[in-house]
Amino acid sequence: MSGKTLPKVAVIMGGLSVEREVSLSSGRECAAALREMDYDVIAIDAGPDIAERLTEASPDVVFNALHGRWGEDGCVQGILEWLRIPYSHSGVLASALAMDKTRAKAAFAEAGIPVADGGLFSRRAINSGHVMAPPYVVKPNNEGSSVGVHIVPDRANRPPEIADDMPETLMVEAYVAGRELTVTVMGDKALCVTEIVTDGWYDYNAKYAQGASRHELPANVPDAITEACLAHAETAREVLGCRGVSRIDYRWDESKDMQGLFALEANTQPGMTPTSLVPEQAVHLGTSFPDLCDWIVKDASCDR
Length: 304
What we know:
five-stranded antiparallel beta sheet; alpha+beta; globular; D-amino Acid Aminotransferase, Chain A, domain 1; single chain; Rossmann fold
């Protein structure tokens, strides 16, 4: 590194969501990488006293490694705006919009990005009978990492049994068969397409357990599909207003060619664990993990 004094960076991680353990893993990896780059790093396990902790630490920049509710839905971003501390990843509005899957899908559709049919339904309605023809997917409208997802197969006689601890209102959308694809956007540039290969469904365990999934990059798909995924990812980033690093996930039914490609959702706080997709794509294109973390810190800001 040069002799310049680098900013003091607070890496906030952990938090209160069901994705706490994933966030802790992301945060530890990023803190270690930033220390390798000679940053003065303080790691903060975010709790209800996060504003007080940040005030005491007085960092120059916050690296937001939180996942899930309160960490990537605009809540902590609002605190950081109030404290006037530049922070990584997307701002208040983009974070809140991306975390609300139904509203994000509406924004995608308006911009010409293909999405699966679906809508919001009460838990009671879902438990009472099929709210759409199977196969379909039931999931929380504002969680990530495949938390609380139910897949109702084709020709299912009964609707899923949604537990009482699930939200009162849930998102239901048509199940899209096919291959799992994802694209990282770094700044305003889509990087490449990764295919995620698993023996079954890409659930929480497949996302984070070592060896539970295999990533092929670049994905072995037709050039037209690659180009569409990259273009849709950049458009999604623009219509949501994301900044920093974000990621767009897709399903592609190759039997239907371009008509089988659908965007699933946007992730404004992609995982930064050893098995995560964003670091893999960055490394594939020549950006090391420490350099990626360095870029994210330098991109941090308020008010956008």
